Amino acid sequence: MRVYGGQFLKTHSYWYDYLAKHPKAGRPNHQGIPEGPSRGHWDNEYARSVGVPAAYDYGPERIAWLCTLATYWAGDHGTLRKLNVTLRRFNLQGDLTTLAGHVTSKAEVDGKSVVRAEISATDQRGIVTAAGEVEIELPRKTDGEKPR
């Protein structure tokens, strides 16, 4: 399991206390205020200085979008068993992201109905910016019985 966030996502006096201990952690912006590397998410000029054409999204947010895609598809009675997503490219600010998925297998595992699917996030240029797979346990229904 990976946890996302960053040591540079500090505000106010916490940021200045951090800079006092690590003075090279921040680079002054156009107003002379030191900001950390996270500024590539909102500052086009800084993003270009590190090789990205424009400000970009926070990648783990796309992982959350794909998780939401899977759990909405599974419904209230389905259970997300596994989620594995790889971020492949930046989403630039203003990009349109389309999510998709398709079932790759269905199986009975330990008496439970389990579906595996490939999922992806694609930008308006047709570039897959995130992709992965999910495993979802779906409820079973027998002879008019309501799903559990």
Chain-averaged pLDDT: 89
In total, the number of strands is: 6
Read across the widest sheet, the strand sequence of neighbours is 3-6-5-4
Radius of gyration: 21 Å
Number of helices: 3
* Proportion of helical residues: 10-25%
Largest sheet: 4 strands, antiparallel
pLDDT < 50 runs, ≥5 residues: none
Q: Estimate the strand proportion.
A: 25-35%
Shape: elongated
Structural class: alpha+beta
* End-to-end distance: 29 Å
Order of helices and strands: HEEHHEEEE
Question: What is the subunit organization of this protein?
Answer: single chain
Explain what this protein looks like in three dimensions:
It contains three helices and six strands, in the order H-E-E-H-H-E-E-E-E. It has helices spanning 12-21, 44-49, 59-74; strands at 27-28, 34-35, 79-87, 97-109, 112-123, 128-138. The strands form two sheets. It has a four-stranded antiparallel sheet, with helices on one face. 11% of the residues are buried.
Throw out a few tags for this protein:
148 residues, alpha+beta, 4-stranded antiparallel β-sheet, two-stranded antiparallel ribbon, 3 helices, 6 strands, 33% strand
How would you briefly describe this protein structure?
This protein has 148 residues and is of the alpha+beta class.
Write the layout of secondary structure elements.
Layout: H1 12-21, E1 27-28, E2 34-35, H2 44-49, H3 59-74, E3 79-87, E4 97-109, E5 112-123, E6 128-138
Antiparallel strand pairs: 1-2, 3-6, 4-5, 5-6
